[in-house]
Amino acid sequence: MNTEQVARVLDEMGTLLEIRGENPFRCRAYHNAAQTLRAMPSDLTEALSSGKLAEASGIGSTLFAKIAQLATTGRLAEFEELKRSTPPGLVALLRIPGLGPKKIKALRDALSIESLVDLRAAAEAGKIAPIKGFGAKTEAKILEGIAFVESVGDRILLSDALRLIAPIFAAVNRHPKVIRSEICGSLRRRKETIGDLDILFSSDDPGPVLDDFVRLPQAAQVLAHGSTKASVRLIEGVQCDLRGVRDAEFPFALNYFTGSKEHNIVMRRRAIARGLKLSEYSLEGPGGAIACRSEADIYKALGLAEIPPELREDRGEFEAAEHGKLPHLITQTDLTGTFHCHTTYSDGSASLQEMADGARSLGLRYLGIADHSKSAGYAGGLSADRVLEQRLEIDKLNQKYGDSFRIFKGTECDIMTDGSLDYPDDLLAGFDYVVASVHSNFGLSRAAMTARIVRAIRHPLTTMLGHPTGRLLLAREGYDVDLDAVIEAAAETGTMIEINANPHRLDLDDVHCRRAKDRGVRIVINPDAHEVEGLKDLEFGVYVARRGGLSRDEVVNTRSTESIAALFERIRSEKST
Ligand code: DGT
Ligand code: CA
Ligand code: CA
Ligand code: ZN
Q: Residue 471 in contact with residue 477, Cβ under 8 Å?
């Protein structure tokens, strides 16, 4: 496991212990150790072998041994036991906005609450308000939170799904009895949240593959185990389905189990219209089965160009595939740089130079730094003096990098409640570009929020809009805003809209991304990185862009450094005339 993975486990252990009401010092120790790990400059293997970690404050010998075990084996019996023995319903309560481990423990102690069902009953009966530290307002919030969590169901983030499936898919894929295998379902379509994980393989002898699958260390519970299909529940709670087919059936099954259901229905209808019958195992014609080696063959047989999985939602892809109008979707390697990143100047955990070097090592040609503006006190927003200091440091680094790399000077400037920007124009004009974002007063009416954001977009010095709805996937709904009006204002003024690629945000979403594209809005993919590792979140922004049907030309940060610099200038001069 790498540093971040180990830190995650430690945090989760700390939280589980807290919910169970263990000694607070012991719980803290886990969270502290996670923080220490994240702050370590060197990588984990080196820190372990050089003794740097053993010396780090807050990491005693027992914790050190656990970290070492996680780092080398990726497993820790104590962690697995802790997960197994904590009621899953209790952990689910963590998803209610505003309920942390301490409050959950208090609810359990006072009212024996161990699940969402218990919690709802107690809140509806007014039993929560009287508990010390809660009150009527909290009770009402809890009821709202339950409704939100229920609307979301048991879905997980795309990023978590990809992380969880990686070792499982690898095990299936390298199994000696497996001929071909592929991830299917919503995960292959790269949806922003995932219900369950689906894997398909082909084999002449699927039994041993399924037997080994249900015995994987990641599997906590076997839900089904037949001769062609097995399902397990992972330790993390999510379900994983594995299906085996004969190799000749593989392309058909792959197509069927990739979905979406809506896409499949149209596929079958098209087949029928051509006198064919498509199923998850075959394509039958009047003269017998039509062999297909790949999905491309199936689409071809139905008179279609191969439709990329991300577009398979029955949202116009058939029309496009029939007329050779499918977009040539953007890929991650098309990205040349990115703009919305934070450093230790505000609430980031890496220095300017570390972020720039991180971007360089990902092969990017430029990096935009956009730390928070002064009103964002909670996030270390920069005073005018600090802005000037940062600009000097950027100048120095740029001199050092020469032509090989460039840091663009930006700011993530708060949009005030009335839609004005947090810095005066003369300060804003000294940046290469301005990301304008809402970070406060989320509760405005739809009309007021829309007017606020549209005004910020119309500001002559606003280059791009940051996280347009402020949503946090599975955790918080976005603010109430008329996104179509926002998109319209961006189109009219030439202002860019970002796809915030942080896997908790993915904001714009795929649907509005498509609408923005259709209106000719300039789209930019930003990771909103607060640490070097966060730059890799660009990956998830690319998936949104692909689902939105964007090609390389439709994403700003695929251009050369010079062309970006010129575009920033052009937007400014166009907006001010
Ligand atoms: P999820 O798991 O909720 O994120 O979404 P999916 O799309 O992965 O759905 P899942 O796991 O229930 O099924 C995988 C694929 O199997 C789905 O994308 C399409 C196909 N499929 C499942 N049920 C049906 C169905 O009733 N009709 C059709 N046509 N296809 C289905
Ligand atoms: Ca699925
Ligand atoms: Ca499934
Ligand atoms: Zn930000």
A: yes
- Closest protein CA for atom 13 of ligand 1: 185
Q: What is the phi/psi pair of residue 193, to 5°?
A: -135, 155
Which ligand 1 atom is at minimum distance from the Cα of 189?
Answer: 7
- Which comes out higher in pLDDT, residue 159 or 443? 159
Return the pLDDT at 5.
Answer: 82
The per-residue pLDDT for 235 is: 79
Pocket test for ligand 1, best of 198, 242, 245, 258 (most atoms within 8 A of CB): 198
- Ligand 1 centroid – CA 317 distance (Å): 18
Contact present, 406 and 397 (Cβ < 8 Å): no
Task: Look up the CATH architecture of domain 3-152.
Answer: Orthogonal Bundle (1.10)
- At 277, the pLDDT band (50, 70, 90 cuts) reads very high
Domain borders along the chain are 3-152, 156-245, 252-322, 337-576
Residue 148: pLDDT above 90?
Answer: no
Q: Which of 3.40.50.720, 3.90.660.10, 3.30.460.10, 3.40.50.300 is the CATH number of 156-245?
A: 3.30.460.10
Q: Is 58 left (phi over 0), alpha (psi -120 to 50) or beta?
A: left
Predicted structure pTM score: 0.85
Q: In sequence order, which ranges of 153-249 are alpha helices (DSSP H)? A: 158-173, 185-188, 207-214
As a whole number of angstroms, the distance between CA 505 and CA 527 comes to 10
Q: From the CA atom positions of the chain, what is the Rg in Å?
A: 26
Q: Does ligand 1 come within 6 angstroms of the Cβ of 161? A: no
Q: Looking at domain 337-576, which of 3.20.20.140, 3.40.50.1580, 3.40.50.1400, 3.40.50.720 is its CATH number?
A: 3.20.20.140
